[in-house]
Amino acid sequence: MVTRRQRIRKMKQVTQRLVNRLKAPATGHEIVYDGQISGFGVRITAAGVVALLLDYRFAGLKRRITIGRSPEWSADAARDEAIELRKLIRNGRPARNTEAGA
């Protein structure tokens, strides 16, 4: 469900250039999802906080894990982490640091 304070876009690939060029929305947050890795994306808040994330389902529940904030995490490093997390999830192990009901 998309609220008025949340905007979602899908790109071919989340790159560092894209992350660096994101503009903070006036209110709420915006999420840009990667077109290649399911659930991988970048979120920018109205305060300008940029976080790389992974949305997934585990045990029938939607979950979101924040991989890390930019610039501490690069888009490439977060992409590699998202791939590893997807492998864990596929093998039946929940990922760390999850937010339920994302």
How is the secondary structure organized here?
Elements: E1 6-11, H1 16-21, E2 29-34, E3 40-45, E4 50-58, E5 61-69, H2 75-90, E6 98-100
Parallel strand pairs: 1-2
Antiparallel strand pairs: 2-3, 3-4, 4-5, 5-6
Characterize the overall form. globular
- Give the helix/strand class: alpha+beta
End-to-end CA span: 10 Å
**Which regions have little confidence, pLDDT < 50, spanning 5+ residues?**
none
Q: What is the average per-residue confidence, as pLDDT, rounded to a whole number?
A: 87
Beta-strand proportion: 35-45%
DSSP strand tally:
6
CATH class: Alpha Beta
Biggest β-sheet strands, sense, barrel: 6 strands, mixed
Radius of gyration computed on alpha carbons? 13 Å
Count of DSSP-assigned helices? 2
For the record, the count of structural domains works out to 1
**SSE arrangement, N to C:** EHEEEEHE
Q: What is the CATH homology-level superfamily? A: Integrase, DNA-binding domain
CATH architecture: 2-Layer Sandwich
Q: Helix proportion of residues, in percent?
A: 10-25%
Any idea of the CATH topology? Double Stranded RNA Binding Domain
User: What strand line-up does the widest sheet have?
Assistant: 1-2-3-4-5-6
Oligomer state of the chains in this structure: single chain
